[in-house]
Structures
1.
Amino acid sequence: MNIQFRKIINEIFDFTYSNSSIKVPAKVGIEIGKILHTGLFREENEKRKISFHFTTDELNLIKNFNKSFLNKTSNEIKKSFNQMNKELNLYSEKIQFTDRELVYIVSLLNNVKFTGNSNDIFGDALEIFRSYWAKKEGGQFFTNQAVTSLALKLIKFNPLNGDDLVDICAGTGGFLLAGFHKIRKIVNKKKGTEKNVASIARKSLRGIEIDKDVNKVGNATLSARLGTKNHEHILCFNSLVNNLIKKSGKINFDKHYCLATNPPFGSKIQINDTSILDHFDLAKMKGKNVKSVSYLKKTIPKSPDILFVEQNIKLLKPGKGRLAIVMPYQLVSGPEATYLRYWILRECSLIAVVDLPSETFQPHTGTKTSLVVVKRRKNRLSDLKPSDDKLVFMSAPRWIGHDRRGNPMFESTPDGKISNKILTDFPDIEEDFDNFSSGKKIENNNISQEINSSEIFNDEYLRFNAMFYKQKDQVNIIKTTKNKKNKFQIFKLESLIKKIFYPGRFKRNYVDYYKGAVPFLGGSNITELLTKTNKWIREDDPNINQLQVKPGWILVTRSGSTGIVSSVPKAWDKFAISEHVIRIIPDENKLPKEYLIAFLKSKLGQLELSKGIFGSVIEEISPKSISEINVLVPKDKKVLNKIVKEIKESENNRNLSMQLNVKAMNEIESFFSI
């Protein structure tokens, strides 16, 4: 989107909310839509080169509120609007802005060309307005335009082929507006008119939104583009209630070709109503791996994001329907949600997964998410053999176009200057998917790849987050290269150690220092050169044995800053360490602990560890996933012994450094009798 045009729309928004007589977002949106529609009509039907053009003198008259000029210009615009509405039958009422408001807004659009370019000026304007409305009504209802556009690309929405588009968590209408953009592009290629676009969109776009205020904004977004005639494009009710869906008359089960949605997510908002839960298979399922997936005799509370996955899939036409849905990263990667992925893969073929950048929904929420695209099977699989499924498109873009505060990010030019082009690699994903779909080579393989679905079916947890397979692929490349050159042996970590674990969760009872108290370290301390701490636990605390560590153990942080590797030096013997740190007890008879420390800290070791990371808000890794990583051990004993010797020296120096640090601090503290 052109930065100058963004500034114009921002100024229009600021003006309408600070100076105009219309303050309600829904009404403002419709009135702006009337102006933008008039601009399109003037160029398309009245054959004007530029919709709104003012000379410098005329702009001064507007700025000085010249009543005669304002009245004359307002009448001309309203005349165009009335003729447009007569021909297209879009609006049920006249323009509501005063002459002064109308002409001032139009003057801001001076020399903006509405037609004849690749951009949808109208759509871009509404996207900016929609983002402002979302901030007022609640950011969780807003989905970035880059995501909505990509979703429509991945499900190959095309109403000329009979597709409709439904969003049962419509929010401010982002996915449906993206559907309109897609319709406009398709119709324009066929040399159709704006009337054709509106007619097709009205027939093929529909949604549901439970929140009344947000529903108004969503309908205003679409009404601004399609007009207020037959304006209830988004219905208002709870789309998890099956009877309400059936009564709607516009949306029903086993019927629709395309769905795209971003449901509300969060484990803290559990659905407990059994009248709702009784209709969902997923409310009766659990299982942390494929073997443990099972059905329960009764329903249990579930978060809405899980139920919406099932509801969306059941609305799809069997054998034909495609769904693009934003899912928390935990649901596509975490062991706890294995049963959900099991159900999805039985019901659907997996088409694509895009791990969205962490900034995608910031600053409103920091939840990490993936865009998952599936096609409903004609018949459910009886078991999880790959069946006729073949390739799955995977991508992990880096930039969404804004930072974590929501501020736009722009590309840098070769000389280091900031350009006017938004920083995003989403267009690259669309190009990659086009190549994938046509059987061509994926060009941007630094962010996209294709995998065989059998890789997912053969995974114990059925993970389908893109980063897991990207990192797995990188690991395989490194292992293959190194294996040929240096002749490594590959072992599972669990075969080289005695035990891997972390303590249970319990309340820590800290005490003031006394002789005999046990020093306590947090996860952030495990790489530090310290033996002094401000936290202490009683030596007879009932949980002390679980927390205490011994020299030679290896430590790995399991949450937050995940995968940091350290070891327990002699100076930390019997220190207590947080349960957020995983303990690995090496087996010296199988592999020297020093080599294991070096491997886990290496690039290859870190890649192996990162495969098992999951979590939507806080990243986590489990002892089980660590125990399953591959460890490359050189067959050449000279190479192995050299690495072991170097780490031994490093560990000895680390321990000595700790002792010297403590000695120096004690000397300083003695000056002040601390």
Note: DSSP finds 23 helices and 23 strands in the chain.
2.
Amino acid sequence: MKIKRTLSVVFALTLPICAAACSGPQQQEESEVLPLWQQSEPYNGTHIYNIAETDEWLVRGGVCDYVIVLPAQAEEYEIFAASELAQLFAEATGCSLAVVGDDEFSYDTDARAFAVGQVNFLGQAGIELDAQLLGHSGFRIVTKGNSVFMAGAEAYGTMCAVYEFLHLTLGFEQYSSNAMSLDRGVTELPLSFFDVTDVPDFQYRVRGYGFLDGDTTLRNRFRMQTINEIAIPVDGSIHHNSFKWLPKEVWQSDHPEWYSEDGRQLCYTAHGDSDSLDEMVFEVTEKMKTILMEDRDRQYITITHEDTQTWCTCTACTAERERYGGANSAVVIKFLNRVSRAVRSWFSGEGAAYARDLKILFFAYHQTNKPPVVYDAATDSYSAIDESVLCDEGVAVYFAETNGDYTQSFYERNNAEIADNMRGWSALCDTMFFWTYGVNFSYYLTPYNCFNSMQDTYRFAVRCNPVLIFDQGAHNETAQPTAWGSLNAYLGAKLAWNVDSDVGALTDAFFTAQFGKGAESMRAMYDMFRMRAEYNEAYNGYSGSRSIFIDALQEKFWSKGLLENQLACVQNALEAIAPLAEDDPENYNIYYRNIVAERISPVYMLTEIYADKLKPAELEAYRRMLRADLELIGTTRLNEKTEIGDLLNRL
């Protein structure tokens, strides 16, 4: 059977204390909803869970006679998965599990094995792995006899299977950098009958927070990867790398026509010079061959334009834009189709040893977000303006748009054009990557309310069939985030796996794990933010295009009373966990750190917005508190462009 979950994206907010902090109407008007091809509704992906109890035991009387069995030639993710299974199982039960190779193990129905990966007795056990269904990350968990098999079609999927087994049997869940749940002191653990097939709604889920970057174990437990694990960097760069392919310092003097008139982008028509365009395609193709000979494994590579709002305005590019309904992207498709066909021709000949199902990705971003398509209202569908702008089988789109409003989903009015563009691209490309956003890049230390919209945006996106989602938060902040960033990262990881996940239940579990006995007060603080944020979006203008860059340090957004009430919640939470300082100092330190991390945001806003309205002694006390909290957490960034030292120097 398929698991079906429902939820209300807007949580129940029942805190009287907010009435004083949030002036104005307490109920915002309903958002105007677009009549898209369907409204937001459950996606119902492949998440099949058949689980039943058996009379057998994994652990009985504190004893476990199971072993972990790996393929004799296990891959890196399989080895890592086995180590995580052994470690976390031991932490929960006190039982040590031996790890053996399948060449040392004899399987029968009475054998007691945790079989991890594609062991050599899968067929004997009658277990099949549908690679087309499971893809990169999907997995099966199957009980056969007394053994439990955990495997994916790829090694990464096997690792995900192990984490899910631990979740189902021992309550394992990683919530943040320092908070997890795991049943402990387990002396009796029954064997369950498992017949589980779970395929993530997005095959690749790329981390969006810097704190996941430097910790491989944490990233794996979130079932997230870095983009560099999936796509091949070009001279160290994956995003905005077009000048890495044709460096200006190498080519511009001899070929100025390869660059836009303002020099800030490539010109994908070579200013209409067909011979020069042929040479341009050749040089990119030759560089790609060199890269593919050095990297034989990864199947994705990017040619993504520079991070500006400009585009080439030469006569040839202008004519192409007009021909394709205002879509600058047409010239990029045509250029990369030629590169792709040249590379595939090489694969079929001299480059056969390096052949793979290569996808060359380009950005649908800013000036190229619009696809060269026509819309048919009768069928509510899109099609290419002509066949030349259909993406070659080796060309794919990386859809991103910072001009959106990520306080709202793609089903709502503010994002109508971007939503239509994304649907259009799904008609042109077989493969798509999706890049969304969930932080204010100008003010990392202030909260950004993507929590209402996140699930519906993911549900919208998954229906356009992207294989990858990258939800970008404070990507270059390596320390634990403030302003509910840890919650954002956790929910994003869960929704990227299953867009129908119960966000309300996940949020409740997060607060319990993250804050312990301080959870109730911290939830009150969070709910205050959510109520105020919804008011800000409806009445104060914290919404609209590029809301991820809005000036958040405005009194109209965050009243002094609200921020002070939030600090009262923090104080209540600290008092609630205080007894643990002696009784359970390890957990006390975790909860204290997590509570203090969230205190940074309101204290920062008080010192920045209300510096001239606070008494000197009060302001100084807040500044001392802010400095101490920033140093404890190790915060490194004020915003995307500025290090935290700029703020510390002012405190």
Note: Residues 237 and 244 are 8 Å apart (CA to CA).
